[in-house]
Design a protein that fits this description.
Elements lengths: L4 E4 L15 H14 L3 E5 L5 H10 L8 E7 L11 H8 L4 E7 L2 H8 L3 H17 L3 E7 L1 H7 L1 H13 L4 E6 L6 H14 L5 E4 L6 H10 L4 E4 L13 H11 L7 H4 L2 H12 L16 E2 L2 H9 L17 E2 L7 H10 L9 H16 L7 H11 L8 E10 L7 E10 L2 E9 L2 H13 L10 E9 L10 E8 L4 E8 L2 H24 L1
Parallel strand pairs: 1-2, 1-8, 2-3, 3-4, 4-5, 5-6, 6-7, 7-8, 9-10
Antiparallel strand pairs: 11-12, 12-13, 14-15, 15-16
């Protein structure tokens, strides 16, 4: 079997997604990480479209890559222009990349309604542009835009566009499902026909408008394509491009195709998160293979089976893609959930021990009250510590007060006063904040720093409120989830009450307790 070449277009096609924008430093960092992952081609952008992309091609030359070849992207020459005088072609050469990818029209609909040229002129535009770029010593990848739709409309002409590129010396022919509306069986049958007519290596560029970007890409590989184009996390225009984070493990682990070193495959989850961070996008927890929930187990029977043999409910080893198994705890949990979750915390519980039963009953009771521990591992760990009578109370609340003031033409000001007791000593402190919870958090951490200096390392990373009974209006019970962070970890805690300040206080206390607990455990 031929090696599969991975062609990443996150920096160009991916940045066309709504809400996605990469700065020049972002693009350089992403390119470096893609190279480390083992991507073979990185499409850096369209130099003829904006100065930032041209700056990327300039700067990437100062950051030599170990493996990946950088490609500049653009179109064929325009109608009525000589290829050597076409601004787009000139900018492609000015990018000084070893690889140039150009697209041309394959569908008569576009030839007639978009380009508004004759079919023969379109063929000449393709042929002359490829030939000119080859004469300049470039590796040329020809992306046949809308090829599958064009083939279904007029197969003879669609194939003629590929012939124009092939005869002019193109190195790769890449039929594109640009509208993302084809079915896998269509991709297979059409690409097989293309393979019978052309000896050049073939690729695939699929979009995800029908939810089949990955399926169509894998179908194309089965039909003979050896170049796979896609983006990290499936970023792209409209509903996105084929997702390389799903395609790559399917190729390597399921189809046994040589696309990526298995040792580098373990970096997949890490680079997915990195690109999300660069794009300022919250990672999709349900993404196949690399999502936070991809190997999360909640139902008691499932967890029991996974405890006995992970293959019962896991299609691969999570570590193969850099992910990990997660055991969720909720009112649906069984004893196996409790046992495995406790093991994550370094606590060995037997299935039939009284402590396991107590934890399970407490979990179900709290679930009825509205507590949810799936995003609050720290609160669950404290629950376990209390059930085992191992929990140390680091401080006791003697009282708190929160005041919110609003004056005309000024933003509201929140102030909180907190009084706590540590041992025989009581302390009082006040804090201000943008809101009542922020003020309460500031006051609590301010007073605790006198006893536990490491509290200054902690800050709130996220704060979420969920209405548990919308019909009750402002009297509804609410659940507060807080994410806290220090220099080493991030953890979640939960509180539930009809009073949002009380619910927030519960989550804040658990957050502080967890910080002090884990620091004490680490010292041991």
């Amino acid at each position: 079997m031929k090696k599969i070449l991975l062609y990443d277009t996150t920096l160009r096609d991916g940045s066309q997604a709504e809400g996605i924008s990469f700065s020049l430093p972002d693009k350089l960092r992403i390119a470096s990480r893609l190279d480390q992952l083992g991507i073979h081609y990185i499409e850096g952008g369209w130099p003829g479209s904006n100065p930032k992309d041209m700056a990327f091609f300039r700067d990437i030359r100062r950051h030599p890559l170990k493996q990946a070849r950088i490609a500049a992207f653009g179109s064929t020459r325009r109608a009525g222009r000589k290829v050597e005088n076409d601004e787009n072609v000139i900018s492609l050469l000015a990018a000084r990349t070893p690889v140039i990818t150009i697209f041309g029209k394959s569908w008569m609909l576009h030839v007639n309604d978009v380009l508004r040229v004759t079919p023969a002129t379109n063929l000449a535009m393709i042929r002359e542009t490829v030939a000119y770029l080859k004469s300049k010593g470039k590796e040329v990848i020809y992306d046949a835009e809308h090829f599958f739709d064009g083939y279904k409309d007029d197969p003879k002409y669609a194939l003629a566009t590929l012939r124009a590129a092939a005869d002019a010396g193109a190195d790769f022919l890449v039929p594109c499902d640009t509208n993302g509306g084809c079915l896998p069986e269509e991709i297979t049958s059409i690409l097989e026909e293309v393979g019978r007519r052309f000896s050049l290596p073939l690729g695939i560029h699929a979009h995800n408008d029908g939810g089949l970007g990955v399926a169509n890409t894998l179908a194309a590989v089965r039909a003979g394509a050896i170049m796979v184009q896609g983006t990290i996390n499936g970023y792209g225009e409209r509903t996105g491009n084929a997702d390389l984070c799903t395609i790559i493990p399917n190729l390597v682990l399921k189809m046994k195709r040589a696309a990526l070193d298995r040792r580098k495959l373990k970096k997949l989850e890490e680079i997915s998160r990195f690109v999300d961070e660069m794009a300022n996008v919250t990672p999709n927890p349900r993404a196949p293979f690399i999502g936070k929930s991809a190997f999360a187990h909640k139902g008691g029977m499932h967890v029991d089976a996974v405890r006995k043999n992970p293959q019962t409910f896991e299609h691969i080893d999570p570590a193969a893609v850099g992910n990990r198994r997660r055991i969720l705890v909720s009112e649906l949990s069984g004893k196996s959930n409790i046992i495995l979750k406790a093991i994550e915390f370094g606590v060995d519980l037997g299935k039939e021990t009284p402590e396991t039963g107590r934890i399970l009953q407490e979990l179900k009771r709290l679930g009825e009250e509205g507590y949810e521990f799936e995003g609050a591992d720290a609160s669950f760990r404290i629950l376990i510590q209390k059930a085992l009578h191992r929990h140390k109370t680091f401080f006791e609340l003697e009282g708190f007060r929160v005041i919110v003031e609003k004056h005309k033409d000024r933003p509201p000001l929140s102030e909180a006063t907190v009084k706590i007791r540590v041992g025989e000593r009581s302390e009082l402190s006040a804090g201000e904040g943008d809101g009542p919870v922020n003020a309460l958090d500031n006051a609590l951490r301010k007073v605790l720093r006198k006893f536990y200096p490491q509290i200054k390392e902690v800050h709130l990373a996220d704060f979420k409120v969920r209405d548990l009974d919308a019909a009750a209006g402002t009297a509804a019970k609410v659940r507060v989830l807080i994410q806290s962070q220090d220099k080493n970890d991030i953890w979640g805690t939960v509180g539930v009450s009809k009073n949002i300040i009380e619910a927030s206080w519960q989550a804040l206390v658990d957050s502080v307790d967890y910080k002090l607990l884990k620091d004490r455990t680490r010292r041991k």
